[in-house]
Amino acid sequence: MLQVKVVRKTREAEGVFSYEFAAISGQSLPAFSAGSHIDVHLPNGLVRQYSLCNHPDDLQHYQIGVLLDPASRGGSKAMHEQVSEGDHLKISEPRNLFPLTHAARRSVLFAGGIGITPILCMAERLAQIDANFTMHYCSRSEDRTAFVERIKQSHFAGQVSFHFDDLSPEQRLQAPKVLSGYTEGDHLYVCGPGGFMEFILSAAREAGWPEASLHREYFAAAPQQAGESGSFEIQLASSGRRLVIPAERTVAEVLLEAGVDIPLSCEQGICGTCVTRVLEGEPDHRDMFLTPEEQARNDQFTPCCSRAKSTCLVLDL
Ligand code: FES
Predict the structure, then answer these.
(1) Distance between CA atoms of residues 271 and 305, nearest Å
(2) Would the CB of 250 count as within 6 Å of ligand 1?
(3) How many CB atoms lie within 10 A of CB 106?
């Protein structure tokens, strides 16, 4: 855990603030790579993940961008209303679940709204190593678009296309055109709302991009549909102990209550911290961390949110 001070809070766009953190000790912060995120421990006790959006070479600061979500479950609201310049916060060391492939032939970056945060960091890194890349930044309107000036002032501004929903149809994103001509070694990175990411990923698959070239990071869990969660059992392989998971509880909650230590962070199926091996049974994957191929293997799942299609899951615990 790192102790940091909020050294700057800046309004970046309608509903978006950026925050710059520096170590209270005055020392450098741990190094990170583009695509990394940190856990921020909020004053209200919640823990939320935010992507770092400053240049990875700047180790005096970490910068994050936070959109106030009208449907906030307490995270973005607390960041906007309870965190000010001068405050002290606890954060985790950066972790990267969305790394760049530095040797890519071509990289195509897509950001939807506040999904710009890891994508901007990636663009800055790709520009620094003189890589072949383009970036597409989609947003509802310019006043809701964070970091526009920073991008326009950057030396990679010519590789960036902005697409605003409220402007002319000609400047909207033509995904099939942008994604045409896939060649081995091309990589795609997308971050944004679930619907935006699904749109980009489907367009890429249709254009012939293989799954291994598609990289995504969700920043909020899709709302779980009600009525889908029945009860089931889990069995701990080490002891044979069986535990019932009632419809309204998660596997992680039941495990923790039973004294089985499961590392947790996002508790929404985004970060992958809780991934646990499944030895028998068929999980009902509800996470957005595992790729479709990994989910299809059914040999691991995320106990913070995923459930079971079979009556019992045997876990490697
Ligand atoms: Fe983040 Fe389970 S705690 S995926």
Answers:
(1) 11
(2) no
(3) 15
- Chain position carrying tokens 């520096």: 22
For residue 289 and ligand 1, the question of a CB distance below 6 A is answered with yes
What are 126's two structure tokens? 């790709």
Same structural domain, 243 and 294: yes
Q: Tell me the CA–centroid distance for residue 243 and ligand 1, in Å.
A: 20
Atom of ligand 1 nearest to the CA of 287: 4
Co-location of 110 and 212 in the same domain: yes
pTM: 0.75
Mean pLDDT split into 10-residue runs, the chain, 317 residues: 96 96 96 93 86 92 91 83 96 90 94 95 95 96 94 96 92 94 96 88 95 83 48 88 88 94 86 91 89 89 93 91
Q: What is the CATH number of the domain that holds 242?
A: 3.10.20.30
Token pair listed for 311? 């009556």
- On whether the CB atoms of residues 279 and 314 are closer than 8 A, the answer is yes
Nearest ligand 1 atom to alpha carbon 269? 4
Confirm if 111 and 136 have CB atoms less than 8 A apart: yes
